[in-house]
Specification:
Layout lengths: L2 H16 L17 E8 L5 E7 L6 H13 L15 E8 L3 E2 L11 E6 L2 E5 L2 H5 L4 H11 L11 E5 L1 E6 L6 E4 L2
Antiparallel strand pairs: 1-2, 1-3, 3-8, 4-7, 5-6, 5-7, 8-9
Helix pairs in contact: 1-2
């Protein structure tokens, strides 16, 4: 079912990187509900982050969020813009998010919850798969969330924490089979 969305993300990444204009494709009506999404690009086969941008809040139809996130991942400001010669050397991962809800540290479950910190001096977000991939404990997860927001360790004590969950789907290899990621 979500394979259709990952294929959409891949097509957007390819077309955007190649400078091709493409009309909004027809996609299942079930993907028209408002929902957040993140597109993550990883190098293949070593799996290094190459770009990750998204729409964390349900402010637009999921299809549009996937398109916006996929274009954004191609030009993540942490990296040089994606080049055409890299298209067969990256995999596309798509995270479809639930609506973020206010939470407390004791309610957070690693592997289930992605986090957003909203602080007067910055905002940061980490997807639920990140602490699993880096083998972080709760303390490390919260510390790195603060760093992602450009803030010092412990900012979560004075900021607002929000948790969300995500269904994560990714290509096994460039332009390849799509699987669901499980923690």
């Amino acid at each position: 079912m979500y394979e259709e969305l990952v294929k959409l993300a891949r097509n957007v990444v390819d077309n955007y990187t190649l400078g091709k204009k493409k009309e909004r494709p027809h996609i299942s009506e079930e993907f028209e509900r408002k929902q957040g999404a993140f597109c993550t690009l990883n190098t293949y086969p070593d799996g290094q982050l190459r770009g990750c941008i998204g729409v964390p809040y349900p402010i637009m139809p999921l299809t549009d969020a996937v398109i916006e996130a996929s274009r954004g991942a191609c030009r993540d400001p942490r990296f040089p813009p994606l080049r055409p010669d890299e298209l067969n050397k990256i995999t596309v991962e798509l995270s479809v998010l639930t609506e973020p809800k206010r939470t407390k540290p004791e309610e957070i479950v690693i592997g289930r919850d992605g986090l957003i910190i909203v602080h007067e001096f910055g905002t940061g977000l980490l997807l639920p798969q990140v602490p699993i991939e880096f083998k972080w404990n709760m303390r490390e997860y919260l510390k790195n969330l603060c760093y992602k927001a450009g803030l010092s360790d412990g900012c979560w004590k004075s900021g607002e924490l929000y948790a969300f969950q995500a269904k994560v789907y990714k290509e096994v290899e460039p332009h390849g089979k799509v699987i669901e990621w499980k923690p």
